Amino acid sequence: MTTSLEKPRANTQGDLREGLINAGLTLLARDGTSGLTLRKCAALAGVSHAAPAHHFDGLPGLLDAIAARGFEMFADVMEAKAAAAPQEPRARLEAICLGYFDFARDNPALYDLMFRQIWSLAGASEELGRSGARAYTVLADTCAPFVLRGQEPGVVETQVWSLIHGYATLVLVGKLGRNRAIASVTDVLGLLGGLALAD
Amino acid sequence: MTTSLEKPRANTQGDLREGLINAGLTLLARDGTSGLTLRKCAALAGVSHAAPAHHFDGLPGLLDAIAARGFEMFADVMEAKAAAAPQEPRARLEAICLGYFDFARDNPALYDLMFRQIWSLAGASEELGRSGARAYTVLADTCAPFVLRGQEPGVVETQVWSLIHGYATLVLVGKLGRNRAIASVTDVLGLLGGLALAD
DNA sequence: CACTTTTCCTTGACACTGTCAAGCGGCCTT
DNA sequence: AAGGCCGCTTGACAGTGTCAAGGAAAAGTG
Question: Is any atom of nucleic acid chain C found less than 7 Å from the CB of residue B55?
Fold first, then answer.
């Protein structure tokens, strides 16, 4: 209502759902986890505070959608790193782990949201399930060459995932030294030297 | 005000600060992370909603104190497991990792609180720093036999910590299979076979 | 013992959160 | 062009953390 020339629907070009997700990503990046609020999200997207309810199932639904978007970005980063690395199993493995860590470090609040405990309690959306599965597939494919004959693939995948996810979360939480980590990513990934190539 | 015989100071025997921390632990165990509220805590301890402000620096202060208590329990569990295990480096290492995982599985909400991102942003209390350091010492001592000559101890410590912490958080978050994990703790700990004993 | 001071808690208010019910306005359909 | 639906707004509610002010009881002081 600043001027009469203002367009009545100038909130977001096209889809409001998209605008709300983007607003959420912006708030998350700018103000951290506690800065992401349903009302702030709506305000940033240029709509009233109750508008999001027509596109998401309340705040949990919005967080779900943002997390799903996060997993897409996450998979993109890892795929890009894998593509840029030498096409050799061990180099690829290290590459996606570095991508994993980079994403966590560059998007701490989003990463935190993605791995919140919520999703295990209240069921996650199908969209989140799909994008999460896509990210997992990137990891699983890279781990495949290290799955020994007759071994359950999930074991190597879980070993690698646990290692890099643990390191990333510990660094984010600030438990590993004040500013820089006690051990670098590559130091930690040295533990993967224990993995043997199949065949 | 149910009966006139009610004692005016029946809130908590002795120290209110202790009562509030215990109330917080109870709420956390019963209702999960979102069930822990400053006001509910005060109500459970039998005092008014503003009483906690005189013992803690707001909600962050209360969470800090609860997390500190959590790290004490955490260290206790790992020490007990280590004491019960054969006094051999590799057995001890596996033992504290199992203790680590047990604690996380048995106290998911508390574990989640302890490793929240908050502590890296706003400075943690000295008490939390000390109890966190004590828990870390248990881990570091157990890792010591695997630190090769001339190697920085923090490397092995971070490798072990990242692995078990990553596994624990992934299981808690429900990403590893629906109810039971794809790979068991001992499966994941197999990666530690890559560690060599010093000397 | 009387009086002050200090300590600890209560009461009440405020801004902010998520959620719901009701209503309005423009767009599409027919 | 009239009817109807979809998307958004407005307003209210309970619940949250935090702050200011006050009060009651214990402790200190002559």
Answer: yes
Could you read off the pLDDT of B85-127 as tens digits, one per residue?
A: 999 999 999 999 999 999 999 999 999 999 986 666 667 888 9
Chain D, protein-covered positions (CB within 7 A):
7-12, 15-21, 25
pLDDT value, residue A154 = 94
CA distance A6 to A39: 22
What pTM did the predictor assign?
0.90
Could B169 and A169 be called an inter-chain contact, meaning their C-beta atoms sit closer than 8 Å? Answer: yes
Instruction: Provide block-wise average pLDDT over 10 residues at a time, chain A (199 residues).
Output: 33 75 97 96 96 95 96 98 96 98 97 83 82 95 96 95 97 71 91 88
SS3 A193: helix
Strands (E), B8-132: none
Q: What is the DSSP string of A84-125?
A: HS-SSHHHHHHHHHHHHHHHHHHSHHHHHHHT-THHHHSPPP
B176: Cα separation from own chain's centroid: 21
Answer yes or no: is B54 CB < 7 A from strand C: yes
Q: Cβ of A105 under 8 Å from any chain B Cβ?
A: no
Give the phi and the psi of residue A100 in degrees, each rounded to 5: -55, -50
Closest chain B residue by Cα to residue A195: B191
How far, CA to CA in Å, does A188 sit from each of A87, A94, A193, B160, B163? 22, 11, 10, 9, 9
CA–CA gap between residue A150 and residue B56 (Å, rounded): 56
